[in-house]
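Researcher: I'm preparing a figure for a lab meeting and need a structural model of a single chain. I don't have an experimental structure, so a prediction will have to do for now. The sequence is pasted below. Please return the structure as tokens so I can convert it later.
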Amino acid sequence: MANVTRFAAAGDLINRVAVSIGLAKTIDPFASQDPAFIQLCTLATEIGQELVQNNAWQKLVTEKAFTTAPGDTGIYELPNDFAYMIDQTGWQQGVPGSAWPLLGPASAQWWSYLQASELYTITIYAWFRMKEGKMHLWPQPPPPGIPIRYEYVSRGWVLDSTSTPVAPVYADSVDVFADIVLFEAEHEASVHASTPGRHQHDRRCGEHTAHRCSTTD
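Model: Understood. Here is the structure written out token by token.
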């Protein structure tokens, strides 16, 4: 079988969009001083970040698991690549064979109620709230030894093509000739979760660029 590159490179996608709006390809779009390519590179990042927010792409779904420990305040750092939690994936593990849902996200009003209510300091059900870029669990402090697990969407939709499979490096913007993990490289293969995503990327890039070029000419 022929050796096929797994993912489409950002520069290749940008060049493809450039050709679709009447521009000639360039060897390295990120090194180009052409205003049109500077614009396309910027739009690639904008649209990629928008696609991450619009859908829980299978390739970007990952999980976080931790166990509450003595001395915990109930406030926990989110993963560095955290974009957003996938609804209804948070669970607290009970005795073997049982689990309880991690309730939330709590509204500011409900969180205030939890803080004011002695009842919920002894509940077996934990609540969570996202605040100030961190996960807050209730009760606070939480009982030690409770395993917590949830799935989330990663912001790492760009793979540094110079990194190795053993230690891949991901980012949330394109500024080098990196690989886009949302898009399969072979011909018109689909996005991992849905075909329209890749076509939407090309169409949106073209529409944005064509509109901006026409308004600046």
